[in-house]
Amino acid sequence: MTDATRAAAAPLLARIGAWPGRVRPPRWRRHRIGLHAAALALLLAVLFPFGWMVQMALRPPGEVLDGALLFQPTLENFAALWQGHFPKSFLNSVLVSSLSTAASLALGVPAAYVLTRWRFRGRGRVALWILATRMAPPIALTIPFFLAYRWVGLQDSVVGLALIHMTFNISIVVWFMQTFFAAIPRSLEEAAWIDGCGVWQAFRRVTLPLAAPGLAATAVFCFIFSWNDFFFALILTRTSAVTAPVAITNFLQYEGWEWGKIAAAGTLVMLPVLAFTLLVRKYLVRGLTAGGLKD
């Protein structure tokens, strides 16, 4: 390499790090470093409350509120939870969330498909009416649900609580899945019809598999909304169908608050949602971004 070539190539090589020099890094690289630092700071801010709760759960019962950063981890708080009624409440939450999510998808997905593909009078009003069921404040529906459930015998039951969660989750399913179905070309279904499939056969074999990312994203949201419900579970349950969020309030006693058990219960309550999200993470990201563009 001649001196002239070396002098001409020095600035370029210095910018890419292949040649010693004092040229500043490219602007895009500085911006990327700043974005990474901001994302890391945001991640730490979001995870800090969860990390603090986990470390409280792992502290010995007598040192939960100590400010010492170093401590001997223990599982005493978790072991104490399983000696009471919390395991049954935890199982109730799993059953209620699973039943309500499955029922919401079973009813809401076909309804969303019909509202997306079929043309009939009042279609817009029906979709708006379904969405309106989600707009109503829960306190406005408490007394009607309470009286109706006491009359039909569904009060303090897992099935009754799952039905209430289903009534609110159906609107989420319908409005989410309408977007995903609208992004699927209708020509694919028409090709299936030409090959001999009926309307619902084409829906089951063609449209539904293509909408799998949307189904996963919708199922996660339904499960989270049902799992985190506190109000209806508090009003409509007593002993048999108490869920985990309501059971945590039992550790708030007049003699004092059992912070170790509260932190341990909160940690356990997070685990099913985290595990369910990780299982469908491959479809979740695709589902959250699907429907943004239409052919």
Number of separate strands: 2
Q: Pairing-aware structural class of the strands and helices?
A: mainly alpha
Report the portion of residues in β strands. under 5%
Q: For the residues shown, what is the average pLDDT?
A: 80
The rough form would be described as globular
Domain unit count: 2
Helix content: over 70%
CATH-derived architecture of the largest domain: Orthogonal Bundle
Low confidence ranges: 16-23
End-to-end gap = 53 Å
Query: What would the CATH topology of the largest domain be?
Result: MetI-like fold
Query: Topology as H/E string?
Result: HHHHHHHHHHHHEEHH
SS summary, helix count: 14
* Main sheet properties: 2 strands, antiparallel
- Estimated radius of gyration: 27 Å
By CATH reckoning, the class of the largest domain would read: Mainly Alpha
Pfam families: BPD_transp_1 (PF00528)
Family: Belongs to the binding-protein-dependent transport system permease family.
Main location: membrane
Domain ABC transmembrane type-1: 90-280
